[in-house]
TrEMBL record:
The keyword Cell membrane applies. One of its GO terms (molecular function) is heme transmembrane transporter activity. It comes from Aliidiomarina sanyensis. GO terms for cellular component: plasma membrane. Keywords: Cell inner membrane, Cell membrane, Cytochrome c-type biogenesis, Membrane, Transmembrane, Transmembrane helix, Transport. GO terms for biological process: cytochrome c biosynthetic process; cytochrome complex assembly. PANTHER family: CYTOCHROME C BIOGENESIS B-RELATED, HEME EXPORTER PROTEIN B. Belongs to the CcmB/CycW/HelB family. The chain crosses the membrane at residues 26-44, 50-71, 103-124, 130-157, 164-185, 197-216. It is found in: Cell inner membrane. This is Heme exporter protein B. It comes from the Bacteria.
Amino acid sequence: MVATRTVFLQLVKRDVRVALRQRSELLNPLIFLLIVVSLFPLGVGPGPDILARIAPGVIWVSALLSAMLGLDRLFRDDFRDGALEQMMLLPVSMEISVLAKIAVHWLLTALPVLLIAPLLALLLNLPTHAWGVLWLTLLFGTPVLSAAGAIGVALTVSLNKGGALLSLLLLPLLIPLLIFATAAVEAAVSGLSAAGPLALIGAFMVLSLTLAPFAVKAGLRVSVN
């Protein structure tokens, strides 16, 4: 158990250090998110009612697309320099290494979104009593994006240009998450209970974090071989 925890933490620290050396790629998803959310008030007009009605969908679609921008580097560099094969030879189960990769992707792409979520809600005139539900949907939903994205990347990492294929694989799988996340925020805006959609998003998170490491392990073995 101690060795497993040590390897997990070392992998997280190593990937964070590598990502910090490529700050341009690190900032691209966040800048993309801010630009998209900022353009919607200009495109649909500054009417507060219109903005409040579309705010949940705009924020979640923007978060989904920005998370996908950072997926390509999840296993790409390790595959090119041979570190992926070395990771498979570590004295711990491959699932632990995959969880470390998913955790790093979440820290670098989803955590900034959680920090600026109030700003995004303010830009789109989302009622303040719905901010907490929006934050919870992002907290429970973004790990699903990272876990599902890791599966897609594992299947396409050996392809030279797998970005388009990755989008085709992931977007249909993430539609239920998008539906329930926006439904939860819309329920909060209307003064209704958001417990049901939030519970479903929490179930998605548990299932994805439990099953994704095994699927990623199988996908990486296929890609490497």
